[in-house]
Amino acid sequence: MITMDDLFALTKSAANVEDEKRVTLVLDPQISAEEAVRQLVHYFGKEEQKAIKLSLEGQDRGYMLRSDIPFLMTFGTRGVDDSAGASLPGGLSDVTLIKLCCPTAGCPQVLLVTNYDENDPPTCDDHETAMERCK
To answer: Which long-range contacts (CB under 8 A, 24 or more apart) does 42-50 make?
Structure first.
């Protein structure tokens, strides 16, 4: 079973990452490491980015590279009939990430969150303006 410490142990510093779009995944402190991995798999499955910055409780935790995702996945062997009566796990379709952008023209900052307070949205690191849902 993977832990958040395992997840963050694979992150890289900004100096070691080509930061194309400056996308940050804001992890909810209530989710498990497995759910965080599901969110990363979901993101990298839809986007061409090579890296994404992780943030937890307002702290930047480093960059996760697309190439490191397989190291976070768990695999196991199964015997004959092990799946009989088993329920299917939740699919990636139930992962909902809200994309927030800086309203300043040309700013590349993007936040991915599972939820946020519309009356108190996160702010852009560069412009200190309230982030908005991307158009």
So the answer is: 42/92, 42/95, 42/97, 43/97, 43/112, 44/69, 45/92, 47/23, 49/20, 49/21, 49/23, 50/17, 50/18, 50/20
Picking from 18-27, 73-82, 99-108, 111-120, which range would have the lowest pLDDT averaged per residue? 73-82
Secondary element (H or E) of residue 15: none
> What pLDDT does 18 receive?
75
pTM of structure: 0.75
Residue 114 Cα distances to 15, 33, 78, 82, 100, angstroms: 27, 14, 33, 34, 11
Beta strand 51-56 with 59-65 is antiparallel
Under 8 Å between Cβ of 54 and 14: no
